[in-house]
Amino acid sequence: MDKLLKQHILCVEDDPSLRSLIDQNLRFEGYEVLLAEDGFRAMELIETENVDLILLDLMLPKMSGIELCKQLRAKGNSVPIIMLTARDATEDKIRGLKTGADDYLSKPFDLMELLARIEAVLRRGKANKGYKEVYHLGEIRIDFKEQRIAKGSELLSMTQQETLLLKYLVHHEGKILSREEIFQDIWGHDHLYSMRTIDTHITKLRQKIEKIPSKPRHILTVHRVGYRFVG
Questions:
Q1: What would the pLDDT profile of 118-156 be if each residue is shown by its tens digit?
Q2: Which sign does the torsion angle of CA 17, 19, 20, 24 carry?
Q3: Chain-centre distance of CA 46, in angstroms?
Q4: Most CB atoms closer than 10 Å: which of 43, 84, 103, 190?
């Protein structure tokens, strides 16, 4: 798997042996892996790193998996979550799903089944992102229909072209898009625009969605090629 296209999985598990086993297997399958032994460390990583999916143990020290999931969803973070637990009780499964988890797997589990669940949840999450009119990027709420971005208490408007470009990038999340490809799909043969139009709109979008526009974490430049969006 191309390193640029690797998806990042955060494994939140307090059992060091199981955490190591999951880490090794996911890396072997081509994923980038982040590790946390408790809920507080997990929250730190989620706020500072790109995370495409979370493997979340239900029983954790300091902050339970249920509480972590609740806090993430309350903040509008829609990153896919697969709950892991040693318990096989139906009520635990229901609690996890009601809290906002996307799937549930009881320990002990087969690693092949875990990998299959991960692939399915990532595939489903990517498809949903591509077609939703409202997209959550951490604490940022992007409303494509209304052409605006809610960034904390700040409400930012987008032009029609900015909206089309951002929606296009989100829909192709993870894919390296050439500048020629973007220009053709967004502006086509409209001679009122040039290739510089892309760079201008990218700069404006970064100012609206990036914490540090000069050091983007979501709209990434691929040297001599184009851009790639990372949610």
A1: 987 887 666 455 456 788 888 899 988 788 999 888 899
A2: positive
A3: 10
A4: 84
